[in-house]
Amino acid sequence: MGNKNVILNEVAVRSKSDDLLNYYPFAEKVKEIIQGYSSNPEPLTIGIYGKWGVGKTSLLNLIEKHIEVFQKDKKDKPYIKFHYNPWLYQTKEEMLFDFFTILSKKLHYSGNEYLKKAGEQILKYSRYLKSVRLSVSGGIPGVFNLGVKVEPHDILKALGEDLKGQDKSLDEMKKDINLALRDSGKKIIIFIDDVDRLDRNEIYTLLKLVKINADFKNLVFLICLDPEHVAKAIHKRYGPNIESGKFFLEKIINIPLELPLVEKADLDLFIKEKVKSAIKSRLIRKDESDELIRSLNVSYFGSPREVIRIVNSFSISLYAIGDEVNAHDLFWIEYLKVKHPESYETIKNYARDHISNYILTSVITFNNEFDKSKSESGVRSILKDQSEKAYDIIDKLFPMDRTGTVYGYRSKNIKSEKELNKQLRINHISHFEKYFSFHTKGKISEIKFSTLKSHIQDGNKDGALTVLKDLLSNSDEYKVVYRLGSELDGMKTPDYEKYIPFIIDNIQVFKEGQGYSNAIQLIQNIGEKLRTDEASGNREICLNIAKKLDYYQLSYFLGRLQENPNIPYLKDLESVLIEKVREPDSPLFYKQRNVSNMIMEIWSKHDSGQFQQFILDSLSSKENVFSFITSFPYLWNDHIQGIFKKEDYTFLKEHLNLDMGSIYAKIEDLIPDKFDLKELEVKAKGWDDKTNNSEKQNIDQFVYWYLMDKEKE
To answer: What is the model's pLDDT at position 169?
Structure first.
């Protein structure tokens, strides 16, 4: 099943084997500084300087991990490591006093009697400092609040923190600690990280803590920080500008070491290894992964931490929708999301605001579709103005045609719509929206769709039907229909000779929409495909389709084919349609008003006498008379029945050659009403085509035009 972990570990480097940024040589230099200072009992503070995210913690880990295996001279002291994280504490007081508590415990359990003694003294020292702070702040219990000066020893005794009779000053206590640390024969290395995460007061407290402890013997502080950030945070305490903060920092840090600049070759390796790690657990075609790796450029990335953020964003999306999109395009759109969120949001919102407007092409460029200037327009010009750096990526993902202009040299190789569709590219309209979702529920699975096509071409009809039903159960039906129809666009004869019959054979599986809307959409797509210049060779496949469809479906299919009047077998298909309409079990065709007029025209043209006889025979009930007459008026907004106009009457009489007298006789026989021309003339003044007309009103309107015609005769 592969590695289920989709997130890259953002924990900094901990071993030389993981050191892709080549920091280990620098860690060796720091080691040499510590080694060279081993015999000197004086305290030392080393600052590791670097911006956020460049790898300070990784360097610190490399030093800490290997400090015990550093080669020591005989006179060198053993090392005790103490990692202190000031970011864990909520208050300055916790940070300050907990440091001493942890350090004392570390020394207590070191196994060295001198260090154990030093630990006890440090704990007392910490308590004494806390009492001094209470005295100065006025935070003394009420019993002592008598307006007199209270000594720290008195406070400690009252709080149950008696120093066991010792009455020593801070300097005397510090001297005892130093003697114990000196006699221990060990170096204590204190690692401090995450300084950049602290607020200005916490930074000041931490530096004060280091300064307080800078007098203790055999202590080495290794502190990672961004000097600019720290100087800005503390300078107001010491002067008017940032230089004041830097000056104070110089008093704290004995040896400032600037983190070495990551070489481009090392950062390039880091980026590529992280991306490879993200994609190795996914099934990605080699051409996609190769294209992605080739496209990675060091100049697009600021720091190792930024790389991790981008790759993790990519990994999450790859896990969610990786099978349905192109890995190269997914990486760079996720890059834009992390690095250039404004441009990303503009692109994301494009799906909502503009995709439906695409008429002439399926290739997305963000330009106005009808603008032929070959320069940036519409949303693309907005993207260009937002960010030059982001636009460089956008131009690669969504290339535009600049050939024939002064910028023609910048034109990318724009692939065909068919190729973009096949490769699941972000700039193809069929796949664009997928790149902005963390799920594929309701979307078309390209893996399953490829399996469907494969089964069809192999003649595995049962397997293909199973996959089709699976697609329909896990996706929106209209999306499946759209995908099936769009696949026809670039399909050649040998392929669609199997593809089209499969769809027709299983047209009944499309359930949604009134009046077979989704099935009809597919049938129309097939008609559009078969009416092309190759149509003369499609007689057999079209006749087979006609035989399998009902007359309603066949009417839509035939309607698309009729748009090419040069198809030689149109009359054969029309004959099949008439046969289906005449079948005893077929519902009356004029009750399907969407296709009724088309069927009437075809049938009256083929055999006018047969058509007229069928109509008269069918008008055997009041319901059928109503259905026939009301099939002609225009239906507004799918529910407002218009009036039966004079042109409708003329269409029946002159175009369809129907006997109006026989139809009127049916109406008189089945609808018990006396029709008077003068009364109808009065009613006619109130008829409104865009106000819903009843069935009886449509009958009155037909009779009105008939009586007017008879009077004229």
So the answer is: 64
Query: What gap in Å lies between CA 664 and CA 661, rounded to an integer?
Result: 5
pLDDT at 611: 95
Between CA 607 and CA 126 the distance in angstroms is 111
Residue in the block written with tokens 């006619």: 684
Q: How far apart are CA 703 and CA 625, in angstroms?
A: 12
Q: Comparing C-alpha atoms, which of 502, 562, 492, 553 is closest to residue 531? A: 562
Of residues 712 and 604, more confidence is placed in 604
Q: What's the pLDDT score for residue 175? A: 82
CA distance 565 to 338: 55
Band the pLDDT of 371: cuts 50, 70, 90. Answer: low
Residue linked to tokens 């949604």: 512
What does the pLDDT read at residue 628? 95
pTM, full prediction: 0.50
- DSSP count for the chain of H helices, then E strands: 32, 7
d(CA 566, CA 534): 11
Q: Answer yes or no: are the C-beta atoms of 288 and 326 closer than 8 Å.
A: yes
- Would you state the structure tokens that stand for residue 449, as one six-digit string? 């769709």
At residue 233, the pLDDT reads 83
257-284 average pLDDT score: 81
Rounded to 5°, the CA angle 268-10-227 comes to 80
23-89+186-261: CATH topology? Rossmann fold (3.40.50)
- Can you list the pairs that 321-324 forms with residues at least 24 positions away whose Cβ atoms lie under 8 Å? 321/434, 321/435, 321/437, 321/438, 321/439, 321/440, 322/282, 322/284, 323/283, 323/440, 323/445, 323/446, 323/447, 324/424, 324/431, 324/434, 324/440, 324/443, 324/444, 324/445, 324/446, 324/447
Dig out the tokens for 502 from the structure: 């499969």
Residues 244, 249, 254, 260: is their CA dihedral positive or negative? negative
| Weakest-pLDDT range from 17-31, 459-473, 561-575 | 17-31
Q: What is the C-alpha to C-alpha distance for residues 292 and 330, in angstroms, rounded to an integer?
A: 10
The DSSP-derived string for 493-554 is HHHHHHHHHHHHHTGGG---SGGGHHHHHHHHHHHHHHTSGGGGG-HHHHHHHHHHS-HHHH
Residue pair 475/445 in contact (Cβ under 8 Å)? The answer is yes
Paired strand residues for 44: 220
CA distance 141 to 125: 21
Could you tell me the pLDDT band of residue 390, with boundaries at 50, 70 and 90?
A: very high
SS3 69: helix
How many Å apart are CA 686 and CA 707, to the nearest integer? Answer: 18
- Crossing angle of helices 341-353 and 388-397, rounded to 10°: 50
Most confident of 131-135, 167-171, 380-384: 380-384
d(CA 208, CA 235): 14
- DSSP code of residue 325: S
Task: Name the more confident of 445 and 83.
Answer: 83
Q: Which of 144, 143, 97 is nearest to 123 (CA)?
A: 97
